[in-house]
Amino acid sequence: MADEGRVAAGDGYAVSPDLNAVGEGYGFRKLRRELGVTEFGVNVITIPPGYETGRHFHDDQQELYFVHRGAVEIEFGDGSKHELREGGAARVDPATVRKLRNPSDSDDAVYLVTGAKGGYVGRDAHQPEGETHR
What we know:
mainly beta, Jelly Rolls, 5-stranded antiparallel sheet, 4% helix
């Protein structure tokens, strides 16, 4: 068994047993860097109760936000606001202005953000030779 509590890497993979293996406290936990991701951006962000991010947009990358723990309110440039609870997700195009806020007065919010440019690859999974799915 690999070292518990630390990122482990092998030939073609890297794993983190939990979020603490890639950082602690508030702000960004750089999954891309810590796991060696090269095909897309990915971070976990932890924000305290009541915290609000600044407004921002991107030049090229579309983003997907996924709420892991707590809740996040996402506000778009058109003024619309949407609350994402645990398991909730939002896709945001590059030029769309957005900001996020933790609406709780007592609980941290933890969310995953992935970003990429270039489009969907399509279904390209295969089974190793001689193996069949049951």
